[in-house]
Amino acid sequence: MNNLPLPPVFERSPELASLAILDATLAVTETALLASFGAGYDGSFDDARRGSSVLRANAIITQARRLAAAVAAYRDALQREALRAGRERRKRSF
Known about the structure:
- This protein is mainly alpha-helical.
- The chain has helices at residues 7-12, 15-37, 53-93.
- It has one domain (7-93).
């Protein structure tokens, strides 16, 4: 979430506004879940009971990280496409 899109980017890809909010929400959710288990959350689940809150929290964290990676990949794809389109426009202008 460090690099929030600037208004011209939103004009080209307005969905990035909601994706920036989603990124922030995922980060806050992960932080809150990790904080709720404190030092007890070490990634080891040998003693955790099936369906326990720590296992459910870990599932949420895992899925949130996957979703964040997918959002980042989408954002990167948009950026590559915008750069490619810009190069094509410059080629045609000569």
